[in-house]
């Protein structure tokens, strides 16, 4: 029996892509003059199987989990910040809370397991798998069962989003130490040196980064036998990374466009595509994270991020920032006058 995550994603509509591209040619502007706003609207039309796409209903789900590798001292911040930020997400004070409110987007949090106690709230789904993932320098991050549960939590988040009529899905993550797990995972996927991909995360100094490199090297040596994408995820990921992967695959299967956040989310997106290649067509990269590994992950996906604002936060903040661009692309596509309607002479 194949896992649900191997089932084919929905196909984009070539018919609607062609119709939308032809429609763009009729609008009162030189062809191509709105650049990527045009191609975005056309791709969204193909994804939504309609000539006039909409991305008003946006669902943002932040997957949170603690990382066992925090014991190695790989973050500039203490592990307690993961659960404290969960409270901040629903309290309205986090960057993503402010952005989601401003966008009129639905924001929820899935807690997959934190060492410190987390608050309860209607927008927090307590889906604790364990208090934290395994320390990757000593053991696999997850058991096979934990991996399956985390992937499924991503799918369930998507099911909730879909029920509320979501037109655009955004996933985010929170987990102190997860730039370490993500970097290890990306090294395995791309076969690049750790030093090419590693960054300061929440703000390590040079000594801290050197120690992080050493920790990642130890984890990689420990998990040399992991070759297949899901095994790499199980050994070197975290619960939130696995949930991200599950949510991207489920969004593609449900036919919902995805706006992908920074370094951690883009690495999860790459992994989702390695597991199930058809997912790629459903992903739009929102922004270029300042974390060095992001560039390599984006290149491996053969995608160019929409924005470069030097963000290095995570939480889905960079993806939220790009929502107005997608909305404006749709607005222009749907509401500009045609040459015939406006009585403007078309190209001779
Ligand atoms: C207050 C605060 C809020 C955050 N929101 C996202 N992250 C980001 O930083 C973490 C990864 O960086 P590292 O691997 O260096 O720990 C993740 O939790 C990520 O989402 C935050 C980090 C902090 C400190
Ligand atoms: O781009 C990201 O996802 C990122 C970068 C640094 C820290 N946390 C997240």
From TrEMBL:
Pathway, per record: Nucleoside biosynthesis; alpha-ribazole biosynthesis; alpha-ribazole from 5,6-dimethylbenzimidazole: step 1/2
UniProt keyword annotation of ATP-binding present: no
E.C. code: 2.4.2.21
Gene3D superfamilies per the UniProt record, alphabetical: 1.10.1610.10, 3.40.50.10210
Coiled-coil region list: none
Record's keyword annotation contains Glycosyltransferase: yes
Active site (record annotation): 315
Annotated catalysed reactions: 5,6-dimethylbenzimidazole + nicotinate beta-D-ribonucleotide = alpha-ribazole 5'-phosphate + nicotinate + H(+)
Pfam families linked: DBI_PRT (PF02277)
Keywords: Cobalamin biosynthesis, Glycosyltransferase, Transferase
Enzyme class: transferase
InterPro entries linked to this entry: Nict_dMeBzImd_PRibTrfase, Nict_dMeBzImd_PRibTrfase_bact, Nict_dMeBzImd_PRibTrfase_N, Nict_dMeBzImd_PRibTrfase_sf
HAMAP family in UniProt: CobT
Protein name, UniProt field: Nicotinate-nucleotide--dimethylbenzimidazole phosphoribosyltransferase
Organism: Simiduia curdlanivorans
Encoding gene, per UniProt annotation: cobT
